[in-house]
């Protein structure tokens, strides 16, 4: 197999990795914010349930969560799981990363001075306006470095989709390497991951610069 063919096959796997990455962020970031609200709720039942959910997501391997999400419809409801492989990957990744993002959001929100809320109340802002117009933009600025770390980890974690036989870039590289009895496909995949992470870091750094006026 020549280099051009190998790169073409790896690029097909890269597309799947990018899809997993983008869809996970699309669902986990807003879900994480909702979970953080539950984690800070004054209702002890809601707060306890959310805390338990977060502890389960952070305390068990993502690999195990992928397996549970994929096979749960079959064992619990007796449903046919054909064609459920990719959705299961996205669901498992999203609920896992939502737990991590929730704690990041919570840390950012709780770090805001009480005076910010009091000043907004004096100006006539209601609670929603206070949060989304005044607090949340500042929270985003504060948590961006932590969110960047998680997104970079997500890039690498996409390789765990192989557990459900979803052929992303790393799985494709392993298959090519096995056929060729060569480590070269794995090295090329490593370069792809490095470039992928570099692009993500550059984009996140751009966001940080745009929000620099909150200093």
Descriptive report:
The chain has 215 residues and is an all-alpha fold. The protein has one domain: MetI-like (MetI-like fold). It has eight helices and no strands. The longest helix has 37 residues, at 3-39.
Summarize this entry quickly.
The protein is mainly α and 215 residues long. Helix content is 81%, strand content 0%.
List the main descriptive attributes of the protein structure presented here.
215 residues; mainly alpha; 81% helix; MetI-like fold
**So how many helices?**
8
> What is the helix content?
over 70%
Strand and helix order: HHHHHHHH
The largest β sheet comes out as: none
Q: Give the beta-strand count.
A: 0
CATH topology call: MetI-like fold
Provide the β-strand percentage band.
under 5%
CATH class: Mainly Alpha
Q: At the fourth CATH level, what is the homologous superfamily?
A: MetI-like
Q: Give the low-pLDDT segments.
A: none
Overall mean pLDDT: 88
The global form is flat
Terminus-to-terminus distance? 53 Å
- Radius of gyration (CA) equals 21 Å
Number of domains: 1
Architecture per CATH nomenclature, i.e. the level-2 architecture = Orthogonal Bundle
Classification by helices and strands: mainly alpha
Work out the oligomeric state of the chains in this entry.
single chain
Furnish the topology, listing elements before pairings:
Blueprint: H1 3-39, H2 44-59, H3 62-77, H4 85-110, H5 114-122, H6 127-157, H7 169-180, H8 184-210
Helix pairs in contact: 1-2, 1-4, 1-7, 1-8, 2-4, 3-4, 4-6, 5-6, 6-8, 7-8
